[in-house]
Design a protein that fits this description.
Shape: elongated
Oligomer: single chain
Order of helices and strands: HEHHHE
Number of strands: 2
Radius of gyration: 14 Å
Structural class: mainly alpha
Distance between the termini: 16 Å
Strand content: 5-15%
Number of domains: 1
């Protein structure tokens, strides 16, 4: 992705790397991701925050549907980040 500086490319890329792991029961891809960092801008702390919010969001969604609760509870921020393969 090539765009102007400070427009949110890293943020968007980290968000997508996490979102691709949303389980199929939530109509997600249930996949894994590879994050190739060519600028050295990957921030593990920020990736952890994004993964944590995604995990919390799925748990909130699961409260309205019991069928989804086990999937949501199993997907912690650590589980999400284990499936993001980062190359610098």
């Amino acid at each position: 992705m090539f765009v102007c500086i400070q427009i949110g490319k890293t943020q968007l890329s980290m968000q997508l790397a996490c979102n691709v792991q949303i389980p199929e029961i939530f109509r997600g891809a249930g996949g894994e991701s590879i994050y190739i960092d060519t600028e050295g801008s990957f921030m593990p702390e920020r990736a952890y925050e994004i993964a944590s919010e995604l995990s919390n969001h799925l748990k909130r969604m699961a409260r309205t549907n019991r069928d989804r609760s086990q999937e949501a509870m199993a997907l912690s921020q650590g589980e999400i980040l284990q499936l993001v393969y980062c190359s610098t």
